[in-house]
Amino acid sequence: LLPRVQSGGRTVLAEAFGEAGARVVEVAAYESRCPQALPAAAAAALARGSVDAITFSSGKTVQHTAQLLEQQFGPTWQQQLQGVALVSIGPQTSHSIHALLGRVDAQADHHDLDGLVAACAQALQGQPFKD
Fold first, then answer.
1. Phi and psi dihedrals of 30, rounded to 5?
2. Residues 53, 120: Cα–Cα separation, whole Å
3. pLDDT tens track for 60-106
4. Are 100 and 117 spatial neighbours (Cβ–Cβ below 8 Å)?
5. How far apart are alpha carbons 41 and 81 in whole angstroms?
6. Torsion sign, CA atoms 128, 62, 106, 78
7. Is the pTM of this model over 0.90?
8. What's the confidence (pLDDT) of residue 1?
9. For residues 9 and 82, what is the distance between their CA atoms, to the nearest angstrom?
10. Diameter of the chain measured on Cα atoms
């Protein structure tokens, strides 16, 4: 197994191939970073209580969101998530959401964009949209 660049993605597949005896060469296709701050429009919407849902597509986005919320709102940052549906793309992401944000309201059955949209719709079904 050759050295690799940390790209923010999971290494499960590469590790499995390596353990099976394959020579694995990983090439970073992207690099994820946490923004400097929560976008002003997002912070304002959360402060007003007008956010219906937040969707997460990776554990790294959960970590970054928690970090930015704490930076923006201080020690009581989790209060900004009351009444906001927290929606996950899959089991690994759900684990991160539960660990860092305390709950998961819906998880995609199919771990792709369509599944994430369906899980979000399910989480919001029957709830009036906030202004």
1. -155, 165
2. 7
3. 999 999 999 999 999 999 999 999 999 999 999 999 999 999 999 99
4. no
5. 16
6. negative
7. no
8. 42
9. 29
10. 56
Instruction: State mean pLDDT over 49-63.
Output: 94
Count of alpha carbons within 13 angstroms of residue 21, beta-carbon side: 0
Cα four-point dihedral sign 73, 46, 83, 87? negative
The C-alpha atoms of residue 71 and residue 115 are separated, in whole angstroms, by 31
Rg (CA), the chain: 17
Which residue carries 């790294």 as its tokens? 60
Residue whose structure tokens are 């007008």: 50
Beta strands in 37-123, from DSSP E residues, in sequence order: 53-56, 85-88, 106-107
Convert 74-99 to b/e letters by CB count within 10 Å (16 or more is b): eeebeebbeebbbbbbbeebbebbee
Q: Is the dihedral of CA 2, 95, 32, 63 positive or negative?
A: negative
Which residues are registered as beta bridge partners of 88? 56, 107
Q: Which two tokens stand for residue 5?
A: 């660049």
Q: What is the rounded CA–CA span in Å between residue 28 and residue 9?
A: 9
> Residue 105 is which amino acid?
D
